[in-house]
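Section 5.1 Outputs to date
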Amino acid sequence: MNESNSSLESEEDRSEAKNSESKKKKKHTKDEITADNCDFEVGQELSFTKVRFPGHARSYSFLVGNRNLRYGQKVVAMSDRGMAVGYINSFPYKLPFSKDMLPLKSLSKIANEHDIEKEKEVYKSQKEVETLCQNLIEKHKLDMNLTHVEFTQFGKKVVFYFVAPARVDFRGLVKDLVNELKLRIELRQISVRDRAASMGAIGPCGRELCCSSFLSKYGNVSIKMAKNQNLTLNYSKLNGVCGQLKCCLSYEEEVYSTKRDRLPNEGDLIETKNGDFGKVRKLNILNQQFDMLTDKGVIKRYTHDQVKGKNPQKKFPHKFDNISDETANVIGEKESAARRERYLHRENEKATKRAAKFAIERIIELSEYFPEKEENEREQLLAEANKEIEESLNAKIAKDYNPYQQKEEISVQEGFQSPDEQIDHEPTSTLKQPEKKTDKKPYRNNKRGRRKNFKNKKRSPQSKKDS
């Protein structure tokens, strides 16, 4: 009997343990969606928003659900260090669901007054602990700078973030902190960029730092990017608040690198399509132009498509008696402007076709999804759709551009070609050329025809008397 009772008790204990584990799992998965409790279909649109927690360098994505949230609103959500109060760091956005997104996190609730007051109390205790740690660092004479302190696991653990030039032996510091606080202690070394992102600051542009506001990945900036953009190597202007190179140097790197590939390098000996030979002195990357000192002692400015090729074997004079500057006139500017006009005209034609196609699809959708509407309402909807077609077509067509104006014939020699020249062809349009309406008859430079008409014309009697 005792054995049977003990077995029953053991089974009951096991069942209670399983129930408690299942409850724990449910609590854990309440705000987290995994493959086990996922009810979303592939391709279903889900609304997300980004939340940033104080002391964190990055913002995290969360499911919004049916909530109406605004930018900067405080919410309660599960961070990687436990439940915490954060604020909305972006506007809601939608993404199609895929299994690669799992696991997903959803917002727990909107922060109320009790949560905000509790957060303020935690903030005060963090400041007290920070001053205590700073005094102990000075006591142990450690080469480290404390950045900020964070309470995790509902106040059971304290994390100290610091910056140091090298590894630090802080075993004595940890012992003193444990004796004073009676809590779990963790010291974490971070980089200078992480410090600026977690603390937040105002940059030299007058706005909030990019790393602390919207950037999810930062760093990977080199001095080569500044050289590629022809910036002066003044480190007081290139460095940010963190003392490192600014992250915004990488924003325009792709544009400058693609445009720089079309231009020759400084110091190259090249020949142009008009027969000039010289040495490249200066580059203007954004305008796609370069200055060249010719072998005749003249500085001229060319567009990128005027390069014929390199000729390093040809001799270039070392000295010039007089050097004249003729950079006011850009050689090849008319050709590039005409080519750009043709390109814009083709893009306008494509845009008009897309707008007309979209408007027709809109009409079809209105007729399909509103069959129960009355005839008057349907006619009104179709009239609005037709009005949208006319407005979109009129908006997309360039008013100032006339593709039928007489253009100068541009003869492009074989040689250096840019990506813009690869699409250089006359626009194909189905419209007819508008005829000019004039009251006067066209003048014909035909002397014989005028003489024949003069002979056939009858003379008046007054003209005979005069003769």
